Q: What sequence folds into this?
């Protein structure tokens, strides 16, 4: 068993109506206990959700704006129109706790839960809290099914949370975040951007302070140099077109690299360890490079209209379909030194020449369509010719 000394050991009182121990022999053998029963819906309002792979999805829209899914509407409708059948129609909540105590001296039946968290049922809790706090309506005095799993194996808690949420189509970013696969990446990223944090759950929305982790991984993948590129038969000319449009594939690759880099077999996965090192080392610079090209002043005067947002003379935003072929071409400047991996173009590198090449690619190859450009291998190769030439002209390059 893996016990964490940093767990939140806060004890929360949980009133209940009925309680039954349904632990099986395997649970008892592995120092687990499982309980089930019915509890007043008010009992779950204050429970944390820190161990869940997803929080209350509606919270992503903010306090004033709410966009409810069909699931949220169904929960709300049952509470308002058919509360007597709520305990039957609702799936209930699953709670994990590090310890549990039945208080037999209390006037009402209560459990004392140590370090509890909802791991399935955050949407039910969220709708109830909206009803009470946002809409100032009384919470119906009805009951909800609960299951409490008492254990201290943090890995199993994470796996249980993931498994219990699969029926709700949990996004991969929530699973990766819950498994801690972004933790080292965030530490490395903060060395360059200390005020920013990485998005680790679908419940979090990218903002000025929260970086789109999937986008970051797409950018890093595009910047990966040939010598680190996965052995897919195109080592000399890797096809990076998918880095623009297939964020799920980029994230899946990162998860695979993470898993193999942390494997105990140094020999078998040494290439993945090097690639994972690149992800970490380049993360902060990668985001700076992406943001730079997203509003590069060099696009002034190009005459490009499609994919370029302007505010007067200022370049506000350049479409990813234009940016990604450029970023992918910069991989030739990836260099490893004592300080780790960096993208280090030569001093005589002229970014305007790259922009001219990008303009030619979008007009002559992509028919003025940024989406076509982002998905065209010919466009990537066209711009790569320019950066490769600079690389060849670089001393010791």
A:
């Amino acid at each position: 068993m893996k016990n964490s000394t940093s767990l939140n050991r806060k004890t929360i009182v949980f009133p209940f109506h009925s309680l039954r121990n349904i632990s099986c022999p395997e649970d008892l053998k592995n120092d687990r206990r499982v309980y089930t029963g019915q509890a007043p819906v008010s009992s779950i309002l204050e429970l944390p959700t820190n161990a869940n792979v997803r929080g209350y999805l509606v919270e992503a829209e903010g306090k004033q704006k709410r966009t409810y899914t069909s699931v949220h509407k169904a929960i709300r409708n049952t509470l308002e129109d058919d509360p007597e059948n709520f305990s039957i129609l609702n799936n209930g909540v699953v709670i994990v706790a590090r310890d549990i105590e039945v208080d037999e001296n209390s006037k009402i039946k209560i459990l004392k839960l140590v370090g509890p968290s909802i791991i399935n049922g955050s949407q039910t809790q969220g709708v109830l809290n909206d009803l009470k706090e946002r809409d100032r309506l009384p919470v119906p005095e009805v009951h909800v099914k609960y299951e409490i799993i008492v254990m201290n194996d943090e890995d199993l808690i994470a796996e249980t949370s993931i498994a219990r949420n699969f029926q709700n189509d949990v996004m991969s970013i929530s699973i990766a975040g819950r498994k801690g696969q972004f933790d080292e990446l965030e530490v490395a990223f903060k060395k360059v951007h200390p005020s920013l944090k990485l998005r680790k759950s679908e419940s979090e929305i990218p903002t000025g302070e929260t970086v789109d982790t999937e986008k970051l991984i797409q950018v890093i993948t595009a910047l990966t140099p040939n010598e680190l590129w996965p052995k897919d038969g195109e080592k000399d000319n890797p096809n990076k077109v998918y880095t623009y449009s297939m964020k799920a594939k980029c994230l899946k690759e990162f998860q695979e690299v993470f898993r193999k880099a942390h494997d105990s077999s140094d020999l078998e996965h040494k290439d993945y360890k090097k690639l994972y090192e690149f992800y970490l080392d380049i993360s902060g610079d990668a985001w700076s490079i992406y943001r730079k090209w997203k509003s590069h002043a060099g696009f002034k005067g190009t005459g490009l209209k499609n994919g370029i947002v302007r505010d007067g003379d200022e370049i506000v935003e350049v479409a990813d379909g234009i940016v990604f072929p450029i970023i992918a071409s910069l991989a030739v400047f990836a260099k490893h030194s004592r300080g780790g991996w960096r993208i280090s173009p030569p001093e005589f590198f002229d970014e305007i020449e790259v922009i001219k090449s990008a303009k030619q690619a979008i007009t002559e190859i992509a028919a003025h369509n940024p989406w076509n450009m982002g998905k065209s291998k010919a466009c990537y190769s066209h711009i790569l010719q320019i950066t490769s030439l600079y690389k060849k002209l670089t001393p010791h390059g």
